[in-house]
């Protein structure tokens, strides 16, 4: 199992991405929450509100999800990061294998 992390400017964008990822059976669950971000853009310090997305999926689906995000994201250069999850509980793993295809 892996987590894929990205952010969106608007909650509606995050919900649209999440719905299509789940609808396409690419992930078992997508968590969405509001966050604050501080970053440098064009040599200027920015502070913005964003919406974080944490996608729970299988390693085999990473490239398909990354491709989908890059093709459908509102940002010109979205961040897509993958974190390996070393262990998950048996019940969740069994459920995930049923819903992710």
Q: How would the blueprint of this fold be written?
A:
Blueprint: E1 2-8, H1 11-23, E2 29-41, E3 44-57, H2 62-72, E4 81-84, H3 90-99
Antiparallel strand pairs: 1-3, 1-4, 2-3
Describe this structure in words.
With 101 residues, this protein is α+β, with helices and mostly antiparallel strands. It has a single domain, classed as 2-Layer Sandwich (Alpha-Beta Plaits), CATH 3.30.70.120. Helix content is 34%, strand content 38%. The chain is built from three helices and four strands. It has helices at 11-23, 62-72, 90-99; strands at 2-8, 29-41, 44-57, 81-84. The protein has a four-stranded antiparallel β-sheet. The protein is elongated, with a radius of gyration of 14 Å.
Give the overall shape. elongated
Structural class computed from helices and strand pairing: alpha+beta
Task: Walk across the major sheet and give the strand order.
Answer: 2-3-1-4
Using the CA coordinates, give the radius of gyration. 14 Å
- First-last Cα distance: 13 Å
Binned, the helix content reads 25-40%
Q: Average pLDDT value?
A: 97
Task: Output the helix-strand order.
Answer: EHEEHEH
Low-confidence segments:
none
Q: Main β-sheet, in a few words?
A: 4 strands, antiparallel
Number of domain modules: 1
């Amino acid at each position: 199992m892996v987590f894929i992390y990205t952010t969106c400017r608007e909650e509606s964008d995050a919900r649209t991405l999440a719905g299509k990822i789940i609808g396409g059976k690419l992930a078992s669950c997508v968590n969405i929450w509001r966050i604050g971000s501080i970053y440098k853009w064009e040599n200027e310090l920015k502070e913005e509100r964003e919406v974080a997305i944490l996608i729970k999926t299988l390693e085999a689906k990473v490239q398909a999800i990354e491709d989908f995000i890059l093709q459908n994201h509102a940002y010109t250069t979205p961040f897509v990061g993958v974190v390996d999850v070393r262990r998950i509980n048996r019940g969740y793993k069994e459920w995930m294998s049923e819903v992710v295809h």
